[in-house]
Amino acid sequence: MKRLEGKTAVVTGGGSGIGLASANRFIDEGAFVFIFGRTKATLDAALAQLGPNARAICGSITDATDLNRLFEAVKAERGDLDILLANVGISELAPLGQITSEQYDRIFDTNVKGLLFTVQTALPLMSEGGSIILTGSSGGSMGIPQFSLYSASKAAIRSFARTWAQDLNGTGIRVNVLSPGATRTEKAVEIMGEAGLDAVRAGTPLGRVGDPNEIAAVAAFLASSDSSFMTGSEVFADGGVAQV
After folding, report:
1. What is residue 147's predicted lDDT score, i.e. its pLDDT?
2. Quick one: pLDDT band at residue 175, thresholds 50, 70, 90?
3. 1 found inside a domain
4. Residue 150 domain-assigned?
5. Is 176:232 a contact under the CB 8 Å cutoff?
6. Which among 36, 39, 45, 147 would be 20 to 30 A from 21, CA to CA?
7. What sign for the dihedral angle of Cα 51, 27, 189, 37?
8. What CATH number is attached to the domain comprising 139?
């Protein structure tokens, strides 16, 4: 039997990169998946790849109306929710001394506020034994030049998991953080460039950046009963970059 047979999952940021790879892996493991993202063309292309056990809802995690519409669609078609992968993360270069309030608002509104209200809106649908997975980052545990806003937002997510594990005590719902290192996605190449990825590669014990499918494999573990005694944890899939 597949590990996620009969389960219902929501993956935000599911149209590309780690989100799409995770949606694919969840479906391979037997789940029915709703992907959520801001760009319809990207979602349509993802759906063509994911096949009949997927649905797509277009919207933004910073918009309460869009979030309500997402989870209303889940309730209407599936009834409840077993897995939420709150895969959120925007970044931009912001060196100290040049950080603007607009940059701060963009990053924290999406990475922190958006993630918070995604989880909170999903919570009434979560079944006992459900798994909430928050996408963190190795950057939340490291000092990376020009990435202080992004790193601080990911450190906040780590803190959320610790507290929410306590808030969810007695519900049977688990919440954990999956923290990738640099992963070869279109977004990473856009933000860091090949030179930036080369620099990360040089400082990574495994000598390379990650593949989205490697991160998805860890997401599937956290989504499944194989991780049933884990909550409030952070699991790194970072090639060792934040570990040594």
Report:
1. 87
2. very high
3. no
4. yes
5. yes
6. 147
7. positive
8. 3.40.50.720
pLDDT 10s digits, 15-37: 999 999 999 999 999 999 999 99
pLDDT in tens, 105-143: 999 999 999 999 999 999 999 989 999 999 999 878 888
Active-site positions read: 150, 154
| 170 Cβ neighbours under 8 A, 6+ residues apart | none
Please indicate, yes or no, if residue 2 is contained in any of the structural domains: no
Q: How many CA atoms lie within 13 A of 237 on its CB side?
A: 20
Domain hosting 196: range is 8-237
Reply yes or no on whether the pLDDT at 6 is more than 90: yes
**Quick one: 25 exposed, middle or buried, by C-beta within 10 A (0-12, 13-18, 19+)?**
buried
Q: Is residue 193 part of a domain?
A: yes
Task: Return the bridge partners of 56, or none.
Answer: 35
Mean pLDDT (the chain) is: 94
Contacts of 89 (CB under 8 A, 6+ apart): 13, 110, 111, 135, 137, 150, 154
The alpha-helical segments, DSSP class H, found in 34-63 are 40-50
| Number of structural domains found in the chain | 1
- What the block records as the tokens of 66 is 């869009």
CB atoms within 10 A of CB 120: 11
Q: Across the beta sheet with 32-37, what order do the strands follow? A: 54-58, 32-37, 8-12, 81-86, 126-135, 174-180, 234-237
Q: Cα separation of 242 and 244, whole Å?
A: 6
